[in-house]
Amino acid sequence: MHDGCLCRKGLAVDHSKAMSNSPDHPKSSLSARDLAVVWHPCTQMHDHETIPMLAIERAEGAWLQASDGRRYLDAVSSWWTNVFGHRHPRIVAGLKDQLDRLDHIMLAGMTHEPAVALAEQLIRLAPPGLSRVFYADNGSSAIEVALKMSFHYWRNLGRRQRTRFIALTGSYHGETIGALSVTDVPLYRNTYAPLLFEPLLAPSPDAYLRASGETSSQHVARTLGKMRDLLAKHAQEVAAVIVEPLVQCAGGMRMHDAAYLAGLRRLCDEFDVHLIADEIAVGFGRTGTLFACEQAAITPDFLCLSKGLTGGTLPLSAVLTTSAIHAAFYAEYSSGKAFLHSHSYTGNALACRAALETIAIFNDEPVLVANRTLSTHLAARLEALRDHPHVSDVRQTGMIAAVEMVRNRATREEFPANERRALRVYLHGLTRGVILRPLGNVIYFMPPYCVTIDEIDLMVDVAIEGIERAVA
Ligand SMILES: *Cc1c(COP(=O)(O)O)cnc(C)c1O
Questions:
Q1: Cα gap 170→181, rounded to integer Å
Q2: What is the 1 CA–ligand 1 centroid distance (Å)?
């Protein structure tokens, strides 16, 4: 999931160099035992004949400690899940307390304090107008819920022809069959394409794709124009438009102007289709505001949350929606209008408690204000790369920053994927104790908010060194 550098086939690195700094792996080591039995996500397992498998024993704050004693800065927040650092004392204490009360029960026919309190808190914090919370247990499942709920809403209204979805080019919404169907990243999608449904694709407002001389507002207007054309032609068969607000993360940390979201909301209203905001990656402060939608002052019809929701401790997701949508399902049993979707671990009490503690930290500490200092420093440090001959773009939205590594800066010609240049950045990071996991040839930073100025310096220094090695 989320990154191309380690999962593309056709390894083209110099193995002897790659391994020269990595620890040995005796047969009894955790790494060796792992490689005998575990099948890892988003991984060509063969790669681990040469790439070290890190055996992590402990984690604290922004740091991971391996069984060989080496420490690694978690510059990617453990696949974007971790928010305040690992084992935040408040979340740990909350979880211990919760374990002594209630672990897990099914959420059908019964409820518990953490599920109710979390729903109340999410409704309080989310953009105005969202008043119902449906739980699931991971990001992809939240997307499945939103897609099914939107489709089912129209069906309950007798609009059975509304069976299609509009997604943006470069979008990523997860890797289960439905979520992958509305994903437009070839690496994840192409192999499974015969199993998937086809969304209508609208061009992404990705600022990197601006035509030369085109201003941001012209680009937003142009891409909204294409969206309008698509809606004008297909609205009668469309249930919803799905979007990753402000940053298309797995698609390469591609960023767009908030004005696009405001325009998209207006178009969805005009053509009477739902807007699904997938804030699974960007929620919980990553973009500078608690939710990215706030920057466009919009309320989506569905808001999907996961990853940072529990601070990065336990799997949980939530789909927030409006009372109007909930009302379309609320009827006598015999009407057959009930929403049908369930996961065994829906609304897990421990996960909900972790989420409550996460929200409590946002409430009690000036997290977003403090992050501004960090993101300003990160931006200043990345300036050094702006004129680099192998960097075509340096971009940032809040606590997410990315560097586009190319063969030719002027033409934006990319390095061939099978040269796996970014893998060299990753491997260099390991030798320097920083976890950087590039997406294709995009080197990005998404650190937990407990990161210090010195740690940001380390992260950027190591990335710059890595880029020098990768382009050589
Ligand atoms: C990670 C991600 C998902 C999928 O979440 P999982 O928990 O990995 O299934 C969906 N959408 C976006 C935008 C994501 O970044």
A1: 12
A2: 8
* Residue closest by Cα to atom 11 of ligand 1: 173
Tokens 């593309």 sit on residue: 8
Residue 238 has pLDDT above 50, yes or no: yes
How far, in Å, from the CA of 283 to the mean position of ligand 1? Answer: 11
Q: Which residue's CA is the nearest one to ligand 1's atom 7? A: 139
pTM of the full structure = 0.95
Q: List strand residue ranges (DSSP E) for 244-301, in order.
A: 247-248, 254-255, 274-278
**Residue with tokens 């978690």, as numbered in its chain:** 74
- Cα 58 to ligand 1 centre (Å): 25
Q: Are 143 and 174 in contact (CB under 8 A)?
A: yes
Strand positions, DSSP E, 90-153: 132-136
Residue 303 token pair:
């808001």
> Sheet of 132-136: strands edge to edge?
132-136, 317-321, 302-305, 274-278, 238-243, 164-168, 200-202
Whether the pLDDT of residue 9 is over 70: the answer is no
Q: Report residue 319: phi and psi, to 5°.
A: -115, 115
Q: What is the pLDDT of residue 469?
A: 97
Domains and CATH numbers, the chain: 15-87+367-471 (3.90.1150.10), 105-347 (3.40.640.10)
